[in-house]
Here is the input.
Amino acid sequence: MTEIEGGTRRADLFDHENSAERDRLGLVETEQDPHTKARIESFEPSDDWNCLEIGAGAGSIAYWLAGRCPDGHVVATDLDVSLLDGVGYPNLEIRRHDAEEETFAEGTFDLVHARAVLSHICDRHGQLVKMAGWLRPGGWLLLEDPSGFTLDSSPDPLLRKASAASSVMMRRIGFDPDWSRGFPVPLQRAGLLDVGMECRLRMMRGGDVEAELLRLTFGQIFDLLVDTGEITAVELDAVQAKLADPSFIDFPPAFIRAWGRRG
Here is the structure.
């Protein structure tokens, strides 16, 4: 697994043992789950669908899928499954799984979903093709990844500096902060049909869900951001203060989702 200077592993950036990470994942669920569920519902899932949730995090979508497809089977995977508990969901399988190193049989799933996963993988196109192959004919692939283009164009100069530092840090370890901005082309190149994409944004006010999510994210990678030389610790502290101040208003980072169906 790729390491950052100093030996920090990519998987350690958002350690599930960190209480701030558990809080951060809960905010991601609050912010993004309604849009994820609505998009999956648009695929008209059957009760007997077999589903794969890659990078399941704290498990909200995996649990929802297990209830939504009670006659099917749901596999929830992550590099760290310590926050996942399948109690009460007999059709839910929890598996520690590294998507870059391990695979599933061709034609296994009716739905493959990954949120904030592929932008953190070095061989993104190769991984997408592999995931598309895990679909049964007619099955759907749904990808959701963040993009910082809203922060890059913020009227606030410090938020722009924090975004620039984040981009530099991510690229140093093989992440691509602009990966999702190229949607839906990668799904088309993978041979998927009925390809679509969307991006939904609402205002971010200091202290609300979106702002607190960004504040926690910056907080967990604070030293790494400063190490890029793009922003100082004093400036980053000021950004954190803004994100907690209800008078501060801007757009949050975008989440872009794209989908396609295997023919």
